[in-house]
Write a structure and sequence with these properties.
Blueprint (H helix, E strand, L loop, with lengths): L6 E5 L4 H12 L4 E6 L2 H11 L3 E5 L5 H15 L4 E4 L13 H29 L2 E6 L12 H21 L4 E6 L7 H8 L3 H8 L6 H13 L4 E2 L4 H11 L1 H17 L12
Parallel strand pairs: 1-2, 1-4, 2-3, 4-5, 5-6, 6-7
Helix pairs in contact: 1-2, 1-8, 3-4, 4-5, 6-7, 9-10
Amino acid sequence: MNLTDRVAVITGGAGGIGAALARRFAAEGAAALVLADLDGDAAAEVAEAVGPLAHGVALDVTDEAQVRALVADTERRYGRIDVFCANAGVATGGGVEVDNAGWERAWQVNVLSHVYAARAVLPAMLARGGGYLLHTCSAAGMLTAVGDAPYSVTKHAAVGFAEWLSVTYRDQGVRVSALCPQGVDTPMLADGLAAGHLGARVIAASGPVLSPDEVAAAAVAGMAEERFLILPHPEVADYARRRAEDPDGWQSGLRKLVRRLRQSPAEPPPPAATP
């Protein structure tokens, strides 16, 4: 998809990958950008920095009525939605001990928010015979998020849902991509490192930590080629092959990494990446 003159909605648009997508879409010539976030004021600040084509709104992606209202308002204002980026996500930093409320929130934000968005935007996209769904799913959805059971499980579900959408609707003109980065210099990773969460330490030790702008550039390149899997960290494809070909060996390697990290003191968060 060429983003010139496109209308896009981006959830989780107040920072991190969402804000970077907004900046990149604007640079690509988008016609209008709606940045939605639970923190509406922060989304508005990002929109102001992006320029007059963008505006920020408050949105709880776990509330389907709010998602439907946002889609309807955007379609009334601009006539259509060409791209919907379901980008909001949450991590827990915990395992089976995470309480039911934590599991439910991960399920609501990381999976059901994608379902709500698809339900809301698909009718008009199918009627027009075109549209694009970009789902931020994480490499955790292809591999595993060591140290964060709810994140790992829900990101696998997010990839599965995106694949189902692609298989079901591509022949009707709707393209779907699953954006699956590994380590990204966002508050989610920084907070996890500061708290000493094992999962964040594994991510930081497993490869380069990209800036959000690098991830956004990879997303735009992948969308231009209409690829289903967009991997800002190309090595994730190799990891996935190794995992599929030798699951026992793959798990053994991860356990060795975990043992090494547990035997060493947690390091401070890395410096912020330069965009």
